[in-house]
Amino acid sequence: ANADVQCRVIGTVNSVQAFWEQELPRYGQRWQPTQTVLYQGATQSACGTASNQVGPFYCPLDTLVYIDAGFFEILEQQFGSSTGPLAQEYVVAHEYGHALQDQLGLLGRAQQDPQGPESGSVRTELMADCLGGVWAHHASTVPDPDTGVPFLQELTDQDVEDALSAAASVGDDRIQEKTQGRVTPESWTHGSAAARQTWFLTGYRSGDLNQCDTFAAATVG
Asked: Which of 36, 90, 132, 167 has the fewest CB atoms nearer than 10 Å to its CB?
């Protein structure tokens, strides 16, 4: 996992799932195992074609996460994300945040209000960032069920900076600046770079699922 990106993705998937499996019973819920499809180039999902034009995503129609490890190069080279491990692991944890939202019946709220800086879509995405942060808070204490050894070493300040770099690089404002040269908040679907960092940190610092209720926040920006 330290040397191979695909192995890192698999290790992160295992860690994230082990965490939610042990965490959700505290809230009276049970984690439903969710597989990741690792592919190269393009593949078909129940939600349409998966490719790097689309980026990693969770498909609620087949309850699978789709990731092409080559996406991380795009994130780094085109959008300026850090190359650190937690930058990549953040992406995986975010998509599993969507899987958790689906299991909790929250994912559909994104479609009810699909665009704008305070929209349901943005709040859904920022919640997934926060849930990724909750996992990161606990990651170094989540043991591999087979070995009893934690999947990750204790995170450093640099690790967290790497994750924040990735979160900022996929902010709607950052992407719009790169691709169209101007920022149009009314068309946002994922949230600003600053908001994505803020909500990841909310989850990371608290380690508490209850702190991720973006729908209860008066403003998420």
From this structure: 36
Give per-residue pLDDT as tens, 163-200: 999 999 999 999 999 899 999 999 999 999 999 999 99
- Picking from 59, 63, 85, the residue whose alpha carbon sits closest to that of residue 162 is 85
Euclidean distance between CA atoms 148 and 161, whole angstroms: 28
Q: State the amino acid at position 7 in one-letter form.
A: C
- The answer to whether the CB of 202 falls within 8 A of the CB of 116 is no
Sign of CA dihedral 140, 167, 89, 212: positive
* pTM value > 0.90: yes
Closest CA to 204 of 157, 137, 159, 154: 137
Tokens for 28?
């009276």
